[in-house]
Specification:
Blueprint lengths: L5 H5 L7 E3 L22 E4 L8 E3 H8 L7 E5 L5 H13 L10 H27 L6 H10 L2 H10 L3 E5 L4 H13 L6
Antiparallel strand pairs: 1-2, 2-3, 4-5
Helix pairs in contact: 3-4
């Protein structure tokens, strides 16, 4: 689905065209992470060469718009997962119902606690990444730095940052609303 790597999107001259998903058909399914169902407003259609017409969820769309929305994203070195898998896990963990909303079963309480701890661990990785590579503190700063470098000088930097992934900023109201809508509908993620 994604022929344009994250770093190429990050240094693009302009943000991509993202359109609302057309009405009709079945429930939308994200081509990147497999997220399905929910509000059509939580999905976007890519109007980008090579991906034109592909439908992605808002979290996967962030990979296309991160350079233009730096306050909505954190960068973290997480080379063990590809971005689509990471997004599916983040959505599942962020949406997982807290025990009070599920009747308080011990199993559900354990799952909710584990999900919360896993998300916290990812955000600690983002903090560690920012300390190790200060240019990753913001997608805007990383974009400016990469664009200022001669193209042939970027290769060693990009090799060092190959495992860089993005996470949704946990304090962003838009992300809180996205996860809350899915939680209310019992939509935890991909099948």
């Amino acid at each position: 689905m994604d022929p344009i790597p994250f770093f190429e999107r990050l240094v693009a001259d302009a943000p991509p065209t993202l359109r609302s998903v057309a009405l009709g058909g079945g429930d939308p399914v994200c081509a990147a992470c497999g997220l399905r169902g929910g509000d059509r407003a939580d999905f976007r259609e890519l109007g980008v060469a090579g991906s034109s017409g592909a439908v992605v969820c808002r979290l996967c769309a962030l990979g296309w718009t991160a350079a233009w929305e730096p306050a909505r994203v954190r960068l973290a070195l997480i080379p063990e997962w590809d971005q689509g898998v990471l997004n599916a896990l983040v959505i599942r963990w962020a949406v997982h119902k807290p025990p009070s909303a599920t009747g308080g079963s011990a199993v559900m309480a354990g799952h909710a606690v584990l999900a919360s701890r896993l998300l916290e661990a990812l955000h600690r990785r983002a903090e560690a990444t920012h300390r190790e590579w200060p240019i990753t503190a913001s997608t805007a700063l990383l974009r400016q730095t990469l664009r200022a470098m001669p193209v042939n000088a970027r290769a060693p930097v990009l090799a060092e940052l190959a495992g860089l992934r993005y996470l949704p900023e946990p304090a962003d109201r838009g992300w809180m609303d996205f996860f809350h809508r899915r939680r209310l509908r019992g939509l935890t993620g991909s099948p």
